[in-house]
Specification:
The strands form 4 sheets. The protein has a 4-stranded antiparallel β-sheet with strand order 2-3-1-6. Strands 8-9-7-12 form a 4-stranded antiparallel β-sheet, covered by helices on one side. Strands 4-5 form a two-stranded antiparallel ribbon. β8 and β9 form a beta hairpin. It has 2 domains: 120 residues, Alpha-Beta Plaits (2-Layer Sandwich), CATH 3.30.70; 71 residues, Alpha-Beta Plaits (2-Layer Sandwich). The radius of gyration is 18 Å and the shape is globular. The N and C termini lie far apart (50 Å). 28% of the residues lie in helices and 21% in strands. By secondary structure, the chain is of the alpha+beta class. This is RRM domain-containing protein. GO terms for molecular function: RNA binding. One of its GO terms (cellular component) is spliceosomal complex. InterPro entries: Nucleotide-bd_a/b_plait_sf, RBD_domain_sf, RRM_dom.
Length: 232
């Protein structure tokens, strides 16, 4: 069913996800990818055989969900194009906020409740080496800063230096990630040095926003992006 057949709502249904990715890592990556569109209330991804490769992302606003559906359709996520549509039914998190929550069939409700509880009780950022959901729902606050201590940090400027990219990364893949942020200008790959790239923005404020949002984002499970300001 196409997303156009379902009325727009705050929750999007994402399928064709890489089933080999661990649930916690999948949620972190989805949060990092979709939080640029608005405040996220919840992310549901279950381990049951019938629900592998699928997830639900619940936004606080319909406009945020609509932008995510439109702009991230077919985005290459862990080497597979995401298929996105609006969720068929209202998410529990939305129903609770509106005061219209009605318990579902008992077994399904208990399963979702247990999954949500484990999600909210995950270790704090200090114990999660490869990223986090962010302490607040206002935007991502990734703790992954692999390059911060390995070299002297460059002064903030409009150019980002990206490292630890998988060799198969293309310019278009990076453009789809970074063009969502204001001030994006271009991506520059270095043919002689695979695994690195430069991303240009209009100014250092805009480049800083993109860095904060995408720091540690994994294009593949083995490659969290390392983002620093480029040295001039």
């Amino acid at each position: 069913m196409l997303s156009g057949d379902i009325p727009p709502n705050q929750t999007i249904y994402v399928k064709n996800l890489n089933e080999k990715v661990k649930k916690d890592e999948l949620k972190r990556s989805l949060y990092c990818l979709f939080s640029q569109y608005g405040r996220i209330l919840d992310i549901i991804a279950l381990k049951t055989p019938k629900l592998r490769g699928q997830a639900w992302v619940c936004f606080s606003e319909v406009t945020a969900a609509s932008n995510a559906v439109r702009q991230m359709q077919n985005f290459p996520f862990y080497e597979k194009p995401m298929r996105i549509q609006y969720a068929k039914t209202k998410s529990d998190c939305i129903a609770k906020e509106e005061g219209s929550f009605v318990p579902r069939e008992k077994k399904k409700k208990q399963e979702e409740k247990a999954e949500k509880k484990r999600y909210t009780e995950e270790p704090k950022p200090s114990s999660v080496p490869n990223g986090t959901h962010g302490a607040s729902n206002g935007g991502p606050t990734p703790s992954f800063r692999p390059g911060s201590n390995s070299q002297e940090a460059a002064a903030p400027n409009n150019i980002l230096f990206i490292e630890n990219l998988p060799y198969e990364t293309t310019g278009r893949m990076l453009e789809m990630l970074f063009e969502q942020y204001p001030g994006f200008k271009e991506v520059r790959l270095i043919d002689a040095k695979p695994g690195i790239a430069f991303v240009d923005f209009e100014d250092d404020i805009q480049s800083s926003m993109a860095m904060q949002a995408l720091q540690g984002f994994k294009i593949t499970p083995q490659n969290p992006m390392v983002i620093n300001f480029a040295k001039k």
